[in-house]
Design goal:
alpha/beta; six-stranded parallel beta sheet; 15 strands; binds uridine-5'-diphosphate
């Protein structure tokens, strides 16, 4: 008789940058053919996800109820991509209201399966409270960091060692790091600089982070060979297994519906890229939830045009404009900009959302001006594309530091949403990276070396298993061992 597959429950936070790596991990586990996957999320997020799953996918989508209005949030707010940035703390706090619903879902799931419990529960870094339910049912619980080890380690350390205000120097030493690491004051988000840790959001946030140490282990969407300091930090901090299983990336077919409609079709985008010479295009995007200031947007537009380089720019409304509002090119961009670059063929302005992976994998793309969100970083490096960093928030500052100082695949162009940027400086950096300068060549070479390291990490052959494949095996074995121990205990 065929053995029943073990079930794995997965629960990402309601944000594109979180849902995407969870979905990618779900697909990876599903492809082993050994597990059934239950992915928990709120109705609107699941609706989007449903359309992105291939027809033959067996991933089961399980709804958890959430009413944003009850939390003083706009109606139908179920994802950070549809709220202005300042509402994020409220949204995060509201997500804690999901805990009793999650407990109920697990209880129903166990009942439906005649008492058979899921093999493990994998939850988001923001949803560490799921541990309590996992513990109640004796289920293995892992936290999945969809971001990088170094970025999250810095964020963790900064948040738990507040305040960071009283210092004579512009450099901050990360107090509990395995190697002396410093951050510059401009790499610390305005929120972390302003708070002494006693405001209600900081207290809430710190409590969430402290829950990580209760998990049975931590999965990280990174590659061991590239992210040693961050991984070491978590190993020492928690004394629990840390499994670097990355890059966990979504296949092209699964990406299409992982978000709303594209601002441009993949075909048109590819067609445009096909007309451009090899490594001649700069791709510009600040991810799914961040944006820059209106004045920065103007300078960037002028810099792109002045650089003469081909580009694709995903434009989201600048700070202060409703993210769901109509696209106001006249207000946000220099007069006639869109028409000019369209007519000259220099660039494509894409409204809100572009098929990013398809763009990054195209031979015409030579660099990525990015906010250094971790998914974007992995997507670029997996294709050997160097990065021009413009970190805007949270761990993006630390990702950029890792990329520039440790990996040598990035040049930072600006920092934050309020820094003053000048067209001349921006275009000089763009040219430095895109031209055949020593720096540009070095960046491209390093990015290609990193691409090979990433490729090897996920090699799964009879005679060779990459570091990420081994880490995934170790994680699944740990969950199985706990399952066997549970069974043994219930027989006794
Ligand atoms: N993304 C995309 N098209 C866009 C903007 C973003 O496909 O126009 C995807 C991108 O490929 C990545 C994710 O959205 O997988 C953004 O995640 P990341 O961690 O880079 O940044 P975040 O949005 O979480 O800040």
């Amino acid at each position: 008789m065929a053995q029943r597959k073990e079930n794995i429950v997965m629960f990402p936070f309601m944000a594109q940058g979180h849902i995407i790596p969870f979905l990618a991990l779900a697909r990876r586990l599903e492809e082993t053919n050994k597990y059934t996957i239950t992915l928990v999320n709120t109705p609107l997020n699941l609706k989007k996800l449903k359309s992105s799953l291939p027809q033959n996918s067996s991933i089961h989508l399980l709804e958890i109820p959430f009413n944003s209005v009850e939390h003083d949030l706009p109606p139908c707010t179920e994802n950070t991509d549809s709220i202005p940035y300042h509402l994020f703390p409220k949204f995060l706090q509201a997500s804690a209201s999901l805990e009793p619903h999650f407990k109920k879902l697990i209880s129903e799931l166990v009942n439906e399966q005649n008492g058979q419990k899921p093999l493990c529960i994998i939850t988001d870094t923001f949803l560490g409270w799921c541990k309590e339910t996992a513990q109640e049912y004796g289920i293995f619980h892992a936290i999945f960091i969809g971001g990088g080890g170094f970025g999250f380690a810095c964020l963790y350390s900064m948040l738990l060692n507040l305040p960071h205000r009283s210092t004579d120097s512009d450099e901050f030493l990360l107090p509990d790091f395995p190697e002396a690491s410093t951050l510059h004051v401009t790499q610390i988000s305005p929120y972390l600089r302003a708070t002494d840790g006693s405001d209600s959001f900081s207290v809430f946030y710190k409590k969430l982070l402290l829950l990580w140490k209760d998990a049975d282990g931590i999965l990280v969407n990174t590659v061991e060979e590239l992210d040693k300091i961050g991984l070491m930090y978590f190993k020492r901090k928690f004394g629990r297994p840390v499994w670097p299983i990355g890059p966990v990336l979504l296949s092209t077919e699964s990406r299409a519906g992982a978000r709303k409609e594209y601002g441009i079709s993949t075909e048109l985008c590819k067609k445009w890229l096909d007309t451009k010479p090899y490594t001649s295009v700069l791709y510009v995007s600040f991810g799914s939830q961040n944006t820059i200031a209106a004045s920065q947007m103007m300078q960037l537009a002028m810099a792109l045009e002045a650089s003469g380089k081909n580009f694709i720019w995903v434009v989201r409304p600048p700070i202060g404009f409703d993210i769901n509002s109509e696209f106001k090119a006249n207000k946000w961009l220099p007069r006639g900009f869109e028409e000019r670059i369209k007519c000259s063929g220099q660039g494509l302005v894409v409204h809100k959302w572009a098929p990013q992976v398809e763009i990054l994998s195209h031979r015409s793309v030579s660099a990525f001006l990015s906010h250094c969100g971790w998914n974007s970083v992995l997507e670029a490096l997996s294709h050997g594309v160097p990065i021009i960093g413009w970190p805007l928030a949270a761990e993006q500052f630390y990702n950029s530091k890792l990329l520039e100082e440790e990996m040598g695949v990035c040049v930072e162009i600006a920092r934050g949403m309020s820094c003053e940027v000048l067209k001349e400086d921006l275009s000089a950096k763009i040219e430095l990276v895109m031209n055949e300068t020593e720096k540009g060549t070095d960046l491209r070479n390093k990015a290609n070396e990193v691409k090979v390291i990433i490729k090897n990490a996920v090699r799964n052959e009879t005679n060779f298993k990459g570091s990420s494949v081994k880490a995934m095996d170790q994680f699944l074995n740990a969950a199985l061992i706990m399952r066997q121990m549970e069974k043994g205990a219930s027989k006794d």
